[in-house]
Amino acid sequence: MRSLEKSSWRLRNITNKHVKTGPARKGLRKIYAKARKSFATAKDKATPERLHDWRKKTKYLYNAVKGLNVRRGSTPAAIGKRAHRLGDWLGEEHDLVLLSHELRADADRLSPSIQRALKSAIHHRRTRLQERAFRLGAKTYADRPKKAI
User: Fold this and answer.
1) How many domains does the chain have?
2) Is the pTM of this model over 0.90?
């Protein structure tokens, strides 16, 4: 616990002059490349597992941009903002996947008409979230890492 507190203190008190931009930019490009690849994989076939992996990689990207404290209005800042929104949408989509699993597990507790209504609502919302996420993902990951970052 003491080690975590010490690390947290160091992170809060780091100044931009301590961060070398070359290695930071290289690391950010790697994270972006992994998220971009995960987006392409999910786009190819949107399974819950692939969408969840894309969400995780996108969240890593957002956290990296946020941690570097990039200049507002810069390309990395715009990518970070989009990654944050994507993470939210993909997180909600994942929550709905889990909810649908719970509905199937407790199917005997609900009437068939309620089950159908819930399944339909979940399917509709998941479809809408995926459409939004893929549109924003195409915008976010349009460029190759060296051009984007």
Assistant:
1) 1
2) no
